[in-house]
Write a structure and sequence with these properties.
Blueprint (H helix, E strand, L loop, with lengths): L4 H15 L7 E2 L5 E2 L10 H21 L5 H28 L2 H4 L2 E2 L5 H29 L1
Antiparallel strand pairs: 1-2, 1-3
């Protein structure tokens, strides 16, 4: 049942979280150097090294969640885990946005900073569709 709407939501969330991080930058420095997600693995700060790890973890977990269609309860829980990973990632990005000095290091924020918001939105929509399927199955079981 990979053609269900929640599978499509989760696949798109996985593609956004794992693929678009190579396309969109997180921010530009004051000397117009674009900083992408995997550039942060070379930094000394553990907080910045967590960003690419969390993006990849979110992508892998949402891709695994697509193939758990036979166990809707586990699929629902894994969808919530994807939401939590991305909320944690969004918190780290906002923290870095607020603590990095304005024009000294970060001049312009990129669209990559908002990718976790899209993944959270898609995961919420997927969980809503999973819950709808589970309710449908429970209502059919009541009729037997």
């Amino acid at each position: 049942m990979i053609q269900r709407i929640q599978s499509i939501y989760l696949l798109v969330a996985s593609l956004i979280s794992g693929g678009l991080i190579f396309v969109f930058n997180l921010w530009e420095t004051s000397i117009k150097n674009k900083v992408f997600t995997f550039d942060l693995l070379n930094d000394a700060s553990i907080m910045q090294k967590m960003i690419p790890i969390l993006f990849i973890a979110s992508s892998i977990v949402s891709l695994i969640t697509v193939f758990l269609f036979k166990n809707r309860q586990l699929q629902f829980v894994m969808g919530r885990i994807v939401i939590l990973i991305n909320l944690f990632l969004l918190g780290i990005l906002i923290y870095l946005l607020l603590t990095l000095s304005g024009e000294a290091l970060v001049s312009e924020k990129g669209i990559g900073m908002f990718l976790p918001v899209l993944v959270v939105l898609l995961s919420v929509l997927a969980n809503k569709a999973i819950k709808k399927d589970e309710d449908l199955v429970k209502s059919v079981d009541r009729l037997r």
